[in-house]
C-alpha cells in the first residue's frame, strides 16, 4: 500500500458512489461501485486478497472516487466508465450488437429483413431475438413460406423466386393491398407461435403432389414441414401469460463464472444465450456489473428471474425490471433448466476452451514452469469410490497434448482402500509403474496425481518402492474445492495464473480422468447389480448371462426390455421369470 493510498483511505466518504483504481502511470485499471465507498474500497487494502484481485491491488498507486446520490446512479455511472475506459481488471462480456429483430416493411410492396433496432416506423417488428442465428433461421423459413419479394432492389423482370412460388413478383404485377395485409396477418400469427394453419396448407400440398406422382415437389413440401417443426420446437416452451421475461442463472467453477439466459417474449421462448467470464472480486458486485453490461444495449423485459435473490433491490431500482422469486410451478422448473444450462456451459467451456494451436508450445510452457524437460508424454491418475464401495483407479494418457484413449487403464483396487485414498493412490502407482519397468516400456515424462500433498507423497513413495524415477506433481484444490494449481515433490506451488492455456489444459485432463474413473465405477456397479438379478433364476447359466450382458450392457437397458425381446434370447419360462423379476424392481 502506497503512502498516498493510505492517506486517501482516511478521507473516504461513507456514501454511495464509484471508485476508480489507477496504476503508477495514472491509467484506470478497475472501476467499481459501492453503497458505502469507505467500507468497500478499504476492503481491498485491509483484507488479505488472492488471485487476480491480489494482482490488481499490487498495481494500485492511487484511486479516485465519485459520490452519487444513490446506488442506482452509481451503477449507471460505473457501466458508462467501464465502457469508456475498458479497465484491465474489469471482466467484460464479449462485445455484441443490439438484439436483432425481424422487420416487416409496412404498406405496399412489403418485404422481410433483419434490423438491429425497432426505431424506424416504416416497419412492423417481431422479437427481439437473442442471437442473429435464430433470427436468420426464422426469416429464412418465412421467406420460403410467404411469397414476399426477396430482392433488395426491384428488378425489371421476374426472378427465380416467382417461378418457384416464393414471390408474387411485384416487379411485373400490381399486387392489391389486401393481399399484402393478409400476408402480414399470417406472418404475425406464425411468429406468435400459431403454425397450425401453415402446416395444414403444406401437408395438403404434399399429399396432392404425392397423388399426382410429383415426388420432387412433395419432398420440397416435406422439407418445409420439417423446418417448421425444427425451428418451432426450439420455441415450444411457452408461458401463457404473454409476459416479456428473461430467466437467468449463474454457475461457478474453478475461478470462472457462467451466466445463462432464456429469453421469453409474449410468453414464447425466442432463444437462449450464455457467457463465461473469469471470477473476480465479490460475487454480488460482479453479477451486478454483468447484468448492467448485458442490458446496456438490449431491450429490457418486464420481469427477470435469477438464482441470486440479493440482486433484487439493484435490479428493480436501477434497471426498472420486476424481479420475481418462485418456489414451484412452471417458472420454477424453467429456472432449474436454466441453471442446468449454466452448469453445462461451464463444463463445455473447460472441455473445449481454446488451447494453443501449437500444442508443443503449450507443453514447453508447462515444462519450463515446472523446471523439467518438455513433457510430451503425460499420465494422470485418479481414484473413485461411491459411498466407500468398490474402490477403483483410473489412468489416462496424453501424448503431444492429445488424449490417447487406447492407452487408458482402469484398476480394481483392494477393498481395504475403500476409505483410504492415499493407499489407493499407492496401489495404482505401484502396479502401473512396476509393470512398465518389468516390460521395459517407456515411462511418461510427467505423472500428475489428482490430489494434494497426501496423494502426491503416496505416489512418490510408490515410485521409490518399485525403483522408478520420474517427475510427479499433484493437481490440488483450494478450500472452496476449486482447482488451484500444481505442487511438486519439493513442496513448490505453481498457481498457473499467468499461463491460462496451461491451466485449461490441466483442467481438461482432470475432467477426463474423473469421467473415466466414475464411468468405470458405474459400469462395475451396474454389472454387479445385473449379476445379482440373474442369481436364483433356473436355466440362466454363464452362456445365457453373457448373451444378455452383450445385448443389454446396462441394468437400465435390461429393465426396459419387453418380454417378447427376452424370449428371443431365452426359453419362454426363463424369459418370463427374468421379466417378472425386472418388473418388480421398477416398483421399488
Provide structural commentary.
α4 crosses α11 (312-319). The protein is flat. It folds into 5 domains: 3-85, GIY-YIG endonuclease, CATH 3.40.1440.10; 101-193, no CATH class; 245-351, Nucleotidyltransferase, domain 5 (2-Layer Sandwich), CATH 3.30.420.10; 359-523, UvrC, RNAse H endonuclease domain (Nucleotidyltransferase, domain 5, 2-Layer Sandwich), CATH 3.30.420.340; 536-586, no CATH class. The chain is built from 20 helices and 19 strands. The protein has 588 residues and is an alpha+beta fold. The termini are far apart.
Helix content: 40-55%
- The name of the CATH superfamily of the largest domain reads UvrC, RNAse H endonuclease domain
Number of domains: 5
How would you sum up the global shape? flat
Could you name the key traits of this structure?
GIY-YIG endonuclease, 20 helices, 5 domains, 8-stranded mixed sheet, Nucleotidyltransferase, domain 5, alpha+beta, single chain, 19 strands, 588 residues, flat, 45% helix
Would you kindly provide a brief summary of this structure?
The protein is α+β, with helices and mostly antiparallel strands.
Question: Topology of this protein?
Answer:
Blueprint: H1 3-9, E1 17-22, E2 28-34, H2 37-46, H3 51-59, E3 62-67, H4 71-85, E4 101-105, E5 112-115, E6 123-126, H5 132-145, H6 160-163, H7 177-191, H8 196-211, H9 215-233, E7 245-253, E8 256-265, E9 268-278, H10 283-294, E10 303-306, H11 312-319, E11 322-323, H12 329-352, H13 359-370, E12 377-386, E13 389-399, E14 402-403, E15 409-412, H14 421-439, E16 446-450, H15 453-466, E17 472-477, E18 483-488, E19 493-494, H16 500-534, H17 542-551, H18 555-559, H19 563-566, H20 572-586
Parallel strand pairs: 7-10, 10-11, 12-16, 16-17
Antiparallel strand pairs: 1-2, 1-3, 4-5, 4-6, 7-8, 8-9, 12-13, 13-14, 13-15, 17-18, 18-19
Helix pairs in contact: 4-10, 4-11, 5-9, 8-9, 14-15
Amino acid at each position: 500500500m502506497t503512502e498516498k493510498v493510505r492517506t486517501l483511505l482516511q478521507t473516504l466518504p461513507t456514501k454511495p458512489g464509484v471508485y476508480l483504481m489507477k496504476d503508477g502511470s495514472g491509467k484506470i485499471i478497475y472501476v467499481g461501485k459501492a453503497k458505502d465507498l469507505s467500507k468497500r474500497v478499504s476492503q481491498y487494502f485491509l483484507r488479505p486478497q488472492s488471485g487476480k484481485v491480489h494482482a490488481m491491488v499490487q498495481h494500485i498507486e492511487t484511486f479516485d472516487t465519485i459520490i452519487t446520490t444513490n446506488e442506482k446512479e452509481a451503477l449507471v455511472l460505473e457501466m458508462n466508465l467501464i465502457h469508456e475506459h475498458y479497465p484491465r481488471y474489469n471482466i467484460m462480456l464479449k462485445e455484441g450488437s443490439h438484439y436483432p429483430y425481424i422487420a416487416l416493411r409496412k404498406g405496399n410492396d412489403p418485404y422481410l429483413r433483419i434490423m438491429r433496432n425497432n426505431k424506424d416506423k416504416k416497419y412492423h417488428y417481431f422479437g427481439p431475438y437473442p442471437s442473429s442465428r435464430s433470427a436468420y433461421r426464422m426469416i429464412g423459413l418465412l421467406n420460403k413460406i410467404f411469397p414476399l419479394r426477396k430482392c433488395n432492389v426491384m428488378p425489371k423482370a421476374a426472378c427465380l423466386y416467382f417461378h418457384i412460388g416464393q414471390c408474387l413478383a411485384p416487379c411485373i404485377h400490381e399486387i392489391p393491398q389486401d393481399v399484402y395485409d393478409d400476408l402480414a396477418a399470417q406472418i404475425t400469427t406464425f411468429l406468435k407461435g400459431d403454425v397450425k394453419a401453415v402446416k395444414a396448407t403444406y401437408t395438403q400440398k404434399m399429399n396432392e403432389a404425392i397423388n399426382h406422382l410429383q415426388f420432387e415437389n412433395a419432398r420440397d413440401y416435406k422439407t418445409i414441414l420439417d423446418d417448421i417443426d425444427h425451428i418451432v420446437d426450439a420455441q415450444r416452451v411457452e408461458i401463457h401469460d404473454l409476459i416479456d421475461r428473461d430467466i437467468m442463472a449463474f454457475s461457478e467453477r474453478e475461478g470462472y463464472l457462467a451466466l445463462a439466459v432464456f429469453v421469453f417474449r409474449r410468453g414464447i421462448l425466442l432463444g437462449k444465450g450464455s457467457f463465461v467470464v473469469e471470477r473476480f472480486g465479490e460475487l454480488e458486485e460482479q453479477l451486478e456489473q454483468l447484468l448492467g453490461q448485458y442490458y446496456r444495449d438490449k431491450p429490457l423485459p418486464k420481469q427477470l428471474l435469477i438464482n441470486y435473490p440479493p440482486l433484487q433491490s439493484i435490479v428493480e431500482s436501477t434497471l426498472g425490471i420486476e424481479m420475481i422469486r418462485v418456489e414451484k410451478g412452471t417458472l420454477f422448473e424453467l429456472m432449474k433448466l436454466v441453471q442446468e444450462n449454466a452448469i453445462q456451459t461451464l463444463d463445455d467451456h473447460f472441455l473445449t476452451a481454446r488451447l494453443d494451436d501449437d500444442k508443443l508450445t503449450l507443453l514447453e510452457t508447462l515444462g519450463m514452469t515446472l523446471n523439467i524437460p518438455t513433457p510430451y508424454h503425460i499420465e494422470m491418475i485418479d481414484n473413485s469410490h461411491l459411498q466407500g464401495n468398490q474402490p477403483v483407479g483410473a489412468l489416462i494418457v496424453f501424448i503431444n497434448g492429445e488424449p490417447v484413449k487406447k492407452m487408458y487403464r482402469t484398476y480394481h483396487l483392494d477393498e481395504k482402500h475403500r476409505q483410504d485414498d492415499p493407499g489407493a493412490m499407492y496401489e495404482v502407482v505401484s502396479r502401473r509403474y512396476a509393470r512398465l519397468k518389468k516390460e521395459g516400456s517407456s515411462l511418461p515424462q510427467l505423472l500428475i496425481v489428482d490430489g494434494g500433498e497426501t496423494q502426491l507423497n503416496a505416489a512418490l513413495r510408490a515410485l521409490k518402492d518399485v525403483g522408478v524415477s520420474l517427475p510427479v506433481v499433484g493437481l490440488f484444490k483450494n478450500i472452496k474445492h476449486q482447482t488451484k494449481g500444481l505442487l511438486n515433490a519439493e513442496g513448490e506451488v505453481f498457481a498457473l495464473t499467468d499461463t491460462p492455456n496451461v491451466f485449461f489444459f490441466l483442467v481438461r485432463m482432470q475432467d477426463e480422468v474423473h469421467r473415466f474413473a466414475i464411468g468405470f465405477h458405474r459400469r462395475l456397479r451396474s454389472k454387479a447389480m445385473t449379476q445379482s438379478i440373474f442369481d436364483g433364476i433356473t436355466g440362466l447359466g454363464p452362456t445365457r448371462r453373457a448373451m444378455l450382458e452383450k445385448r443389454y450392457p446396462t441394468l437400465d437397458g435390461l429393465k426396459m426390455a419387453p418380454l417378447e425381446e427376452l424370449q428371443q434370447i431365452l426359453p419362454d419360462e426363463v424369459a418370463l421369470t427374468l421379466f417378472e423379476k425386472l418388473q418388480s424392481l421398477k416398483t421399488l
